[in-house]
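quick q for whoever's on today - can somebody do inverse folding on this one?? i tried earlier but teh output was garbage lol. tokens:
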């Protein structure tokens, strides 16, 4: 049996335990990380690079198996877990973005990372634990990379920061920030918040980096123990260049010099996210000039290398961006709402060549998305879906289910709008937004944030404030630092940081950052957030000039929803035996009725009169009968001793034969028939809730009234 090696890492009074040697012994690196009773197993395996490989084939998968929470899938037909949930995909992206920048340039071996949640205690968050486990597994594997990485989540509760908060604490936080970092470099940040100030975000990032350093240091100690005891499982040796390859390297230097000397400005002018005609023409020239000296893909790489150098020199040395803008200048803006008659809300946001059309659909609460997760069943009333079709960059391409990038961008825009949405009690609708990217040249996710704000206001959703977003960039050469507002595609590709910030005029609601270089200090972050705020407010001004608040009237094609609050003990009366009453009511009024456990009844329909009728019926059903009160009822059943009369929907009482009329009734069937309608008076409700009614009592009143009238 393999030796088991463990290491404890103390983080703010809580313990992360790393263990290797028991599970997945054939993986090049396998680490089980525990915190409390939550446990994640991370494995890493590498294989030799495939011939002709010109990119780094890293795959990262995070898997949440339901057994970790003691759950069996609810489906009667399928018990095995299906495709990964969006949450699992987002976690995979967090891990990928944290580790990918640390692999050496030119490393082409195939690397597969799998993190599996094995146990979940409903208290300790498995996501930071998964990143720590992956970091540790890579560190002991022998696969070349510049780690380890520490990952930590920071909450902000009652003005204090909490590291790796429990799930119960997360319900109270006004900020959720996740950061990954090495000892000297922040790599990635994800954050959502309730209009949090820039200073709070900066302080949270500083504290998070400090904790990440502690975790990374603990992983280094663990790795040293494992390697000393077992050595590396994966033996990587950088391949020696053959004589032919050495000659090719010399030829590449000649081509590189030619590219730099003859580089056409048109390549930069045509740069976007799709095809670049000038670049294709220059590539053809180079290929003709140096055919057989190296591959066409390598020539294209040299063009990109030259373009990167030219773009960065222009920014860093001259303070001029590729499109002539200043460092803090936002591209031209255009905003439209209400573009389509039948959609419930729409917004078109255009910023330079980035155009995003967002469409809103409203539905009843029954249309909320049901999720089966390790937390159990959950529902989701606000959804944002992001689509990036190939035509948006002028190309052909695959169409189908969304990829990880689309899921990630959709989630970021969703997170940005959640803090301003009305509560379910104030607005009992399900909301689905879809952002269709019409044209792309940088920061379509922030375009989706702006489009979402516009579409929600156009749909009449009473959001508390409008939200805008902007993508920031950075180019850094030693102490020469330039922060760029509203980066386009080429600036993102050749820059050192992609920093997306969304928020209202009052504060930040979402943030996402990926860093490619070390040395990002507080001063740089402070400048980036300051410029981002100015950019956000500038964009917000353009949006509010078109629609400054949510419309008072929703689309006539959107469902009308009324809510009535009833005593929860009366829910059964509305539903009726086997759902008989509620089904009949829905069919009769053309509405959809949803009932919450707290007694909130939501009535949805496109016909106002139908909604009104259903509301009245529910009000009547749940109304208590009062002794002495008069009701109009219908005979539903006749027995020898009396007639049963329905006085309110689902509520019947007995009119005894002696209470039908003042005189003696020898044959009840000659007196009343099923379907007859008349007024009755409640004369008694016994301890078992049985209701006694009288028609005779009202007849006596009528006779007395007639005598009084004659007098």
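ok took a stab at it. sequence:
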């Amino acid at each position: 049996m393999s030796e088991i090696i463990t290491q404890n890492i103390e983080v703010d009074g809580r313990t992360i335990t790393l263990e290797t040697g028991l599970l997945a012994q054939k993986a090049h690196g396998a680490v089980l990380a525990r915190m409390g009773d939550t446990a994640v197993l991370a494995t890493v395996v590498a294989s030799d690079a495939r011939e002709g490989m010109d990119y780094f084939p890293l795959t990262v998968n995070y898997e949440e198996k339901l057994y970790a929470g003691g759950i069996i899938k609810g489906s009667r037909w399928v018990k095995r877990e299906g495709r990964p949930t969006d949450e699992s995909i987002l976690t995979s992206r967090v891990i990928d973005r944290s580790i990918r920048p640390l692999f050496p340039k030119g490393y082409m071996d195939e690397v597969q990372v799998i993190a599996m949640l094995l146990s979940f205690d409903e208290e300790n968050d498995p996501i930071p634990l998964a990143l720590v486990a992956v970091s540790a597994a890579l560190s002991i594997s022998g696969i070349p990379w510049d780690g380890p990485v520490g990952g930590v989540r920071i909450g902000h509760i009652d003005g204090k920061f909490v590291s790796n908060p429990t799930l119960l604490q997360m319900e109270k936080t006004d900020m959720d920030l996740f950061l990954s970092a090495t000892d000297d470099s922040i790599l990635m940040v994800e954050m959502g918040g309730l209009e949090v100030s820039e200073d709070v975000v900066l302080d949270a990032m500083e504290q998070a980096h400090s904790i990440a350093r502690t975790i990374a240091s603990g992983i280094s100690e663990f790795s040293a123990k494992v390697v000393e005891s077992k050595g590396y499982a994966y033996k990587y040796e950088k391949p020696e260049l053959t004589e032919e390859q050495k000659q090719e390297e010399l030829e590449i230097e000649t081509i590189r010099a030619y590219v730099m000397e003859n580089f056409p400005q048109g390549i930069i002018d045509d740069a976007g996210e799709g095809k670049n005609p000038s670049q294709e023409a220059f590539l053809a020239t180079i290929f003709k000039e140096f055919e057989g000296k190296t591959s066409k893909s390598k020539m294209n790489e040299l063009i990109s290398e030259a373009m990167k150098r030219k773009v960065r020199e222009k920014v860093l040395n001259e303070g001029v961006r590729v499109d002539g803008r200043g460092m803090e200048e936002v591209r031209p803006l255009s905003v439209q709402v209400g573009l389509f008659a039948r959609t419930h809300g729409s917004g078109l946001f255009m910023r330079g060549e980035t155009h995003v059309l967002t469409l809103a659909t409203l539905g009843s609460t029954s249309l909320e998305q049901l999720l089966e997760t390790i937390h159990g069943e959950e529902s989701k009333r606000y959804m944002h879906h992001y689509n990036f079709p190939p035509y948006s960059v002028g190309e052909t391409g695959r169409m189908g289910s969304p990829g990880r990038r689309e899921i990630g961008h959709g989630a970021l825009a969703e997170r940005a709008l959640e803090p301003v949405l009305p509560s379910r009690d104030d607005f009992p609708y399900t909301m689905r937004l879809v952002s269709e990217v019409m044209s792309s040249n940088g920061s379509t996710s922030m375009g989706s944030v702006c489009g979402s704000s516009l579409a929600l206001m156009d749909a009449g959703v009473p959001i508390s404030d409008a939200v805008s977003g902007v993508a920031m960039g950075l180019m850094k050469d030693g102490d020469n630092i330039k922060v760029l507002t509203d980066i386009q595609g080429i600036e993102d590709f050749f820059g050192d940081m992609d920093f997306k910030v969304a928020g209202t005029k009052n504060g930040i609601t979402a943030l996402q950052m990926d860093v490619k270089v070390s040395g990002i200090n507080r001063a740089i972050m402070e400048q980036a957030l300051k410029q981002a705020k100015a950019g956000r407010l500038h964009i917000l001004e353009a949006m509010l000039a078109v629609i400054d608040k949510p419309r008072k009237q929703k689309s006539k094609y959107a469902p009308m929803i009324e809510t009535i609050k009833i005593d929860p003990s009366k829910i059964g009366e509305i539903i009726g035996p086997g759902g008989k009453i509620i089904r009949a009511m829905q069919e009769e009024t053309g509405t959809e009725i949803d009932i919450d456990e707290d007694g909130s009844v939501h009535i949805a329909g496109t016909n106002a009169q139908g909604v009104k009728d259903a509301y009245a019926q529910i009000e009547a059903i749940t109304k208590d009968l009062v002794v002495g009160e008069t009701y109009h009822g219908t005979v539903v059943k006749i027995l020898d001793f009396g007639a049963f009369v329905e006085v309110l929907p689902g509520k019947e009482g007995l009119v005894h034969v002696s209470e039908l009329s003042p005189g003696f009734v020898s044959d009840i069937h000659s007196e009343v028939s099923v379907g007859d309608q008349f007024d009755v008076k409640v004369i008694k409700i016994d301890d078992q809730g049985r209701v006694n009614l009288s028609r005779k009592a009202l007849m006596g009143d009528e006779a007395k009234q007639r005598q009084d009238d004659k007098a």
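fwiw The longest strand covers residues 186-196. also Residues 703-711 have pLDDT under 50 and may be disordered. so keep that in mind when u check it
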